Amino acid sequence: MRIGELAERTGTSRRLLRYYEEQGLIVAARGPNGYRDYAEASVDRVLQVRGLLDAGLPTRIIKQILPCLDQPRAIYFPDATPEMIATLEAERDRMTRRAECLLRNRDAIAEYLDAVREYDGVASA
Amino acid sequence: MRIGELAERTGTSRRLLRYYEEQGLIVAARGPNGYRDYAEASVDRVLQVRGLLDAGLPTRIIKQILPCLDQPRAIYFPDATPEMIATLEAERDRMTRRAECLLRNRDAIAEYLDAVREYDGVASA
DNA sequence: TCGAACCCTCACATAGATGTGAAGGTCCAC
DNA sequence: GTGGACCTTCACATCTATGTGAGGGTTCGA
């Protein structure tokens, strides 16, 4: 598919799709006219990238972890350098902390909202 | 406490502490000499702000949700406008999605790391 | 064959979080 | 009372993710 369709299906601007490619996060074949030609799987890929970006990971890190998440993987175990392992472990822990922070604060918001609802229920009763 | 101590205890530059204050995320009393004077609770507050920033929330949103998380709360139920409620609900859901994305990808990283460990174990055996 | 709707690259602009440094005031220990 | 280590404000710099637009090629249907 071409960039316009991918943009529409992922809710991502063409500009950003080109940027993600420039950052090595997605790949695109090229037609004889130079147009980008995306595989069907690119849709999920872009969505995954956007999710990670939205969760605060920089493209630099996303680029490093993506290949390990592919099935089939783009990085096989023998290729994993100790540095990469260390990066992945650090990032895994960092993501855990991030998620915890997110859930903790989300629960607090939810609790507040529940209290508001209860207050309104009592007030209007 | 003064800004230097808070910076050290939170691992945050003075510059950023002033920035967070400018954005309305933290407050500081002022001594007669103009120096900022932070309460003990500022340490936790700053840490919370940093966690949320790191998880991808912009200061604008953090500023909105923080008052609802305080104990005692800075925003009481009668003060909650419908717009604020809507913002909080949207943000709560957004945080849930972010956390899910984070945990899903973290689990995939963990799985990869487990597989690497297993591979290394077999290879070295 | 023309126009609309795509696509390309390149480059400059913006917004948010952060760094850095200048110019200057305050406090304290020697 | 002087020097060093704090503090203040202000302003400009940087990085990353993004927007926007210019200048130009391609495809396709009327």
Q: How would you describe this protein?
A:
- The structure is a homodimer.
- With about 120 residues, chain A is mainly α.
- Chain A has five helices and two strands, in the order ααββααα.
- Chain A has helices at about 5-10, 15-20, 40-55, 60-70, 80-125; strands spanning about 30, 35.
- A two-stranded antiparallel ribbon of chain A has the order 1-2.
- The mean pLDDT of chain A is about 95.
- Chains A and B meet through helix 3, helix 4 and helix 5 of A and helix 3, helix 4 and helix 5 of B.
- The structure holds a DNA duplex (30 and 30 nucleotides).
Question: What secondary-structure arrangement, pairings included, does this model have?
Answer:
Two copies of one chain form a homodimer.
Chain A: H1 3-10, H2 14-22, E1 29-30, E2 36-37, H3 42-54, H4 59-69, H5 82-124
Antiparallel strand pairs in A: 1-2
Chain A binds a DNA duplex (30 and 30 nucleotides) through residues 2-4, 13-16, 18-19, 31, 33-36, 53, 58-60.
